[in-house]
Amino acid sequence: MSNRLMLPISRRALLSGAAGAATLAVAPGLRSPAIAQNAPLKVGLMLPYTGTYAKLGKFIDDGFRLYVEQKGGKLGGREITFVQVDDESKPEAGTDNMNRLVGREKADVVIGTVHSGVAMAMVKVARDTKTLLIIPNAGANDATGPACAPNIFRSSFSNWQPNYPMGKVMFDAGHKNVATITWKYAAGAEQMSAFKEGFTKAGGNVVEDLTLPFPEVEFQALITRIAQLKPDAVHAFFAGGGAVKFVKDYAAAGLGKTIPLYGAGFLTDGTLEAQGAAANGLKTTLHYADNLDNPANVAFLKAFKDKTGNVGDIYAVQGYDAAALLDVGMKAVGGDDKQRDKMIAAMGAAKIDSPRGPLSFNKAHNPIQNIYLREVRNGRNEMVSIAQKDVDDPARGCKLA
Ligand code: PHB
């Protein structure tokens, strides 16, 4: 495996390279089959390596590389090489960064990203250039909804998936009036809307939706507002560095005892060490729990720890599974990614023994997976129950048969 780190595209590079990038975007299809098959498969990793989602990006990267290493650096017999770009979770740079990967860098496949807004820019370029894209986190519903395409897969979740089941969980726990709080961008809006769908269907009432711009972390005014509103409970979406601060601020305000905090599991995944006691007892829903005792999870956590020294989390799992999904496709075509239809058919039919449990894909190429109710105990997100089994995203607006 080889590796190159690209800095985020500069304005100057952009201006001088824009025309080249546009022309080169179609170049992979023009390479001769002989060259294409002997050359390593070039995987473009477009992830946030800086900013509030930096740790998420690193764990996805580590998880992906771990899988490839376990296969001796090859997928479907073809050597893998990497090129990576820091997207900084900036949607405004998403199109240029993606164009640079598929154009100038001639990535054969792109893996990215974390932030829903950046991912939608990538989806547009992937559709235009027919580049194979695997989204290893971003939940933007549209990517496997109206913008779905044969060449676009997701190894993670739709924003709808981990939040819809929480509606019933909270209602059944006796909470009738709930406030939501999140960052004001696609992921926050879609996650809270899915929660609201499940919660109102169960009989609950959302009293107020509180938001602040991404990636701000000045939560105090909103926490004061929650204290005034006195809802029965709060449902939140934050992740990464922002989730660490929110959970600590909420606990410091002393609200945890009277107004319990719940969330999509991103609130407490990959964050527990930094959150410390403030996270104890928090209940969240997600497609993973630390103590899933299936053999795939036990082996994955050990291998991840051995490689990185870190405890694996959902982001590492999603990176690992993105590579597993690509492997299914590459095996089906003996490493010849130009047999695109055959490769895509195999990936769409993949059944992966994931650390998260059974993983398959719907017609829109979004995962079908269990959503677990977890509780933070002893510094871990421990499974309480399966909140909803084999959750399939509604894929609203996807025209793929
Ligand atoms: C998203 O923007 O889709 C997103 C980001 C971080 C998460 C989950 C979703 O942990």
Summarize the structure.
By secondary structure, the protein is of the alpha/beta class.
CATH level-1 class of the largest domain = Alpha Beta
How is the biggest beta sheet arranged?
9 strands, mixed
Q: Quick one: overall form?
A: globular
The beta-strand count equals 16
CATH architecture of the largest domain: 3-Layer(aba) Sandwich
CATH topology title of the largest domain: Rossmann fold
List the helices and strands and how they pair.
Elements: E1 3-6, H1 11-24, H2 33-38, E2 41-47, H3 54-70, E3 74-75, E4 78-86, H4 94-102, E5 109-111, H5 116-129, E6 132-135, E7 152-154, H6 164-172, E8 177-183, H7 186-202, E9 205-212, H8 220-229, E10 233-237, H9 240-252, E11 261-264, H10 272-275, E12 283-286, H11 295-308, H12 314-332, H13 340-348, E13 352-354, E14 357-361, E15 367-377, E16 380-392
Parallel strand pairs: 1-4, 2-4, 2-5, 5-6, 6-7, 8-9, 8-10, 10-11, 11-12
Antiparallel strand pairs: 3-4, 12-15, 13-14, 14-15, 15-16
Helix pairs in contact: 1-4, 3-12, 4-5, 6-7, 12-13
The chain binds P-hydroxybenzoic acid (PHB).
Overview of the molecule:
The chain has helices spanning 11-24, 33-38, 54-70, 94-102, 116-129, 164-172, 186-202, 220-229, 240-252, 272-275, 295-308, 314-332, 340-348, and strands at 3-6, 41-47, 74-75, 78-86, 109-111, 132-135, 152-154, 177-183, 205-212, 233-237, 261-264, 283-286, 352-354, 357-361, 367-377, 380-392. It folds into 2 domains: 3-157 and 294-369, Rossmann fold (3-Layer(aba) Sandwich); 160-286, Response regulator (Rossmann fold). By secondary structure, the chain is α/β, with parallel strands linked by helices. Residues 8-32 have low confidence and may be disordered. It binds P-hydroxybenzoic acid.
